[in-house]
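User: I'm writing a tutorial on reading structure tokens. Could you give me a worked example: one chain, its sequence, then its tokens, then a sentence or two explaining what the tokens reveal?
Assistant: Sure. Here is the example chain.
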Amino acid sequence: MIRTLSALSLALAVVGAAQAGPTEANTCAESLTTTGKRMFKTVAPYVKPDSNIQLLMRTHLRDLVISGTLDMADAQANGPAVGQCLALLKA
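And here are its predicted structure tokens:
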């Protein structure tokens, strides 16, 4: 039973990785709010296969929050969904 679950988890991970990429990331981003799309477009050019998405988001969105062009509450509310879309670029 445990072996079967492990094999299933591995298979799902492989399928998920195979389906990730720029096209899937952009499709994901289309479902984001206007703020989320802006956040995605700001951070996406910096995503590499070994990127720490959370660190990239903090680094590249911080100035927008400080300047007042991005509301902190909006950034926090959109962060998880944006992060998921950005993670698809790592494949």
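What the tokens reveal: The chain has five helices and no strands. The longest helix spans residues 2-18.
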